[in-house]
Amino acid sequence: xxxxxxxxxxxxEIFSEVEAPFAFVDLDAMWANxxxxxxxxxxxxxxxxxxxxRSLDLIGRILERDxxxxxxxxxxxxxxxxxxxxxxxxxxxxxxxTDLEALRELALHNAALPDVAPILTVDSVEHLxxxxxxxxxxxxxxxVSLELNAGFEAMxxxxxxxxxxxxxxxxxxxxxxxxxxxxxxxxELVGLMAYESQVAGVGDEPPxxxxxxxxxxxxxxxxxxxxxxxxxxxxxxxxxxxELKFVNGGGTGSLNFTSQEDAVTEVTAGSGFYAPAQFDxxxxxxxxxxxxxxxxxxxxxxxxxxxxxxGGYHSSGAAGPARLPVPWLPEGLALDEEExxxxxxxxxxxxxxxxxxxxxxxxxxHNKAGELCERFDSLLxxxxxxxxxxxxxxxxxxxTFL
Length: 402
Prior knowledge:
The protein is α/β, with parallel strands linked by helices. Helix content is 29%, strand content 24%. Helix 7 packs across helix 9.
């Protein structure tokens, strides 16, 4: 279908018998986004970031869509083990864990299925000590991935960009940890990962911020060049002391660049399937909004304003307007700067408000991806202009891992 033909009237017809609030995924848009990400990833396989999907059903559909969608990147060890119980394999936990109970459970999983047990991420000797502290004598080695800090630094560290993650930046630091892993019987180094959030998660054309846009473009260009060389050096040096079965990098916003690195064997993406509002401001790719939520209009305070029920679904990160949900349809609505998106009500301003009646829906987009699923038990799936299914989110399955 023509994704540009989607409008408020079309969705009102599709959801005419559904009571809001509710969340939905437009599969036509999601599969278009999937094809776009495959094209931007060259010939590299794409590991799916589970935190950005948070629905077992949709994770399964994505993995079945194309053979290059391969493996999952998870966000907590309990979630990882739950996914393993559900039958998913090739699981890479992208964040270090200190969950001793879950580590004991992982040890049992390792003993039963050592070749497909989940892989843990580490970046320090302390992580290795903690993992080994709960392993019994009979436990097989836990497979681990070393995380490289992919953040950008300049001017002696006075300028920096990117998430504060691993302390490991240099080949020497990476080799030292790899050698320490090699000296231990209960851990086995199988991979390396690095997430360049300053490229993958930061749009280079923020609205009405020309100076900031130029700064972002400058930073990203230099970050891409610096990381390509540094990552290759780290992989080469670590490869001398351990056999790396994979090198993971990237995110939705950096697929174009990370996939071109010879040192990288796979890339990761997740948010791009839903295409939340944070991806509206990139110059090098376009995605179609695929996930949204509907709020009912319950008040008309005056001309040019309606009030919707609920809507305070803020995304994580540094507080500010960029973390608020975005009015999508009908076009021409905006949040009230004084109230924003509220716990029980959200005022919406604009000429389009005068055409809305009580009971009509307004359609909003979350600023990020999977976090929306923490607010709803299910997602309505639409395709070719019809509701074709309703599937559970993690929350609907009774799982809230963070």
